[in-house]
Structures are given as structure tokens and as C-alpha cells.
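Go through this:
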Amino acid sequence: MSIYDQVWDVVVIGGGAAGLLAATSAADRGRNVLLLEKNRKLGVKILMSGGTRCNITHDCGPKEIAAAIGENGRFLYPALGTLPPCQVIQMIESCNVPTKIETTGKIFPASDRALDVRDALVSLAESAGAHLKPLHPVTQITSDGTSFKIETDQGDVNARRVILTTGGKSYPGCGTTGDGYTWAGQFGHTIVPPVAALTPIRTTDAWPRELSGMTIAKAGVSIADPVGERPNQPAKILDHCNDSMLFTHFGFSGPAVLNVSRTVNLHDSPNRLQLNLDFVCDQTPDQFRSTFQDHLIANGKSSIGNLLMDYVPRRLVHCLLDRSGVIPATRAAELNREQANRLMSELKQASFPISGTLGFEKAEVTAGGIAVDEIDPKTMESKLCPGLFLAGEVINIDGPIGGYNFQAAFSTGWLAGQHA
């Protein structure tokens, strides 16, 4: 029988992390489940995630996941309680895909192959009995109050329940082009304006280009608004993260930078903001001033160029010295107070103008989406349209790097499948 000649119990729209778990969950309950995916491959974004390694989830409990998500984290409590991180790992490992926990708490497949994770999720859905149909882009969804008609470019599909897992707008090349917002809006849902999150930040300053490709294992990255309410008021710090970072030909990337990029995109005047880098983020300003001065005294005969390599890589040393106006061969004992202060300032708070971000094209997730107060957190069913369930990145949930966003997708998808 053709997929167009029957009424499906559940149709899942979108074959990513949330969609595959939703299809598995619903099929496990004996429901007749069809998953429709516009791409040729299922889980395209999974394949790209984590530098093609796939950061599956984080080594923590549901409360920690919710806390990392932030403002809307409490909405996830029922979903995370139904499918916590440990059970996600058990499911993937049941498909002969062992996992590993890295020192950061991030959990990856032991093979470092996102393909293995994607294949495991597809296998789980197929084993549960779900019918997976790639190359079936949906063009419209309508409801008569008791059932749904899903229009595709190959024919119309009928369903008693629909689970919308179309993702947001990040990495549109993966097919996540915001279609779900339009359909949810047609059913009366409020769409919190989507903005790119976890995306690289650009600067007009030429200095980062000289360091393109260099990674700093740990740096403090902050977003500051230099426009105070009063003259001479210090810049207001809007966001901050300590983690690794990467210099690029356009500016900055890496976990610490991606984690604060959401703040840039949400700001009314992002081009007035500045990005500050702290290369000695394990010390407070007072601690660093004291230890740096002691270091200069103890190594007075050493060149400042060699001395600074105790703090940062050689290539970065030359840039910091150039910005400070200090000759690399200058002996530490020969530095005057002004030079020492400039160096300490560059090491602790090197500032760069922000000219924007790389936006949705390179964003790992979307901030914004379907308002969570219009969704029942215990079932993921729409409060406005009975029979419509919503899960994954299409809803207004986003978190930092570390597997939190995948976990939110897995858990909400699974919960939706349990109730659809």
C-alpha cells in the first residue's frame, strides 16, 4: 500500500535528532509511524555536528542540562526526566556504537565519527517499525480539527497526529530553512524572532587575521557595550565565557566565542559592541598584576619577547608586543611602568570592534522559535492545535556548546513520540 493511501497514526516532519527519536518513541508504542525528510540523507546536521564528531550529550544529569539551557530550561524538566542523558547513551551504545567522555564533560562516539551516531539513530527508528522517507519535502500542513493533511511534492499524506521537528534556521544548507515556523504560525503559534546562536564573530581589526588558525586552549571571551549611561563609565559586560577559542581570517571562533555570539545577534546595535579577550583568565586582574610584576623582577635579564611565551604562544606574543608598542628584545628590567601596564592590559583585556557574526550560515543552533508557553511540557502537544506536537530546535530552546542542544532535541522528540 502506498504511503498516500492510508491514514497514519503519527507523521513526523523532519529527520534530524528530534525527529528520529520521535519516530522511534512513537513506533515503540505500536503506532503506525511515517517520517518525512526533505533531504536525500537523514540526520544531515548530525553528520556535520562537532566537526563531524557529533557531541551527543553532556556527562551530567537532567537538572544540569536544564540549567545550562537557561531561561527556558525549566520547560524541559518533564522531557529530560523521561529521557535523561544516560538513557540516550544507552540507546546509542545498544547499536554497537561505544561512547567516550572527554575532560570537558562532552560525550562523543569513541570512533569520533558522527556517521556512526546518525546510523545508530536511523537503526533504532527502523527497528521500532517507523517508515522513513527521505526526499519528501513537505509544502503544507492543514487540519480539519480531527486529522491532518500533509502535502508533499509527491502526494498528500494523512495523519491522526503530527510531530513537527523541522529544526530552526541554522545551517540552512542542511535543509533547516525555518519552514516549521510558518506552519506553526498558521496554527496560531507565536514565533519568537529567530536569531543565529553558536556562530563565529567577525571584526574589522586586521590583527586576528595574522593569527588565523591559532587556538588558545583557554581564554576569557566577553562581549562589552562601551556606551555607558554616564561619561567615562566602564563598558558594560553583556556576556562572558571561559573556554578555548580560535583566531580566523574573519575574526574569532571556537567554543568560548560561539557561546557568546547569541548576545551579539540579539543586541539592537551589534556594531557598537566590542569583544574582549583575557589570555590569563585563571587569575583576577589584581592577582595577575602582582604575579606579572613579580615575574618581571625575577627574570629581569630575559627579553620581554621570551618572557611572554610563558603566557601565550610565540605568534601571539609578537602581536601583543606590537599592539603595546614594545620592542621584543627589550629586557624585562628595562620596561617602564607605562609599557608594563600596556602589556598587562593586552594580556588581560585585548579589545576588538565587532562587525557582526557569520549568522545562520555557520550557526550551530537557532535562538528563538515557537514560544514554549504554548506547548504542554508534559507531552509536547500544542495548546492551540490538538494533535500537533512540537520538538527540537523548532521551539524556543537553545543552550551552549557541550551536547546540551542535542540532548534537548532527543528528550523533547522522545516525549512527543510517547504522547502522539
Observations:
- The mean pLDDT is 95.
- The chain has 15 helices and 19 strands.
- The longest strand covers residues 236-247.
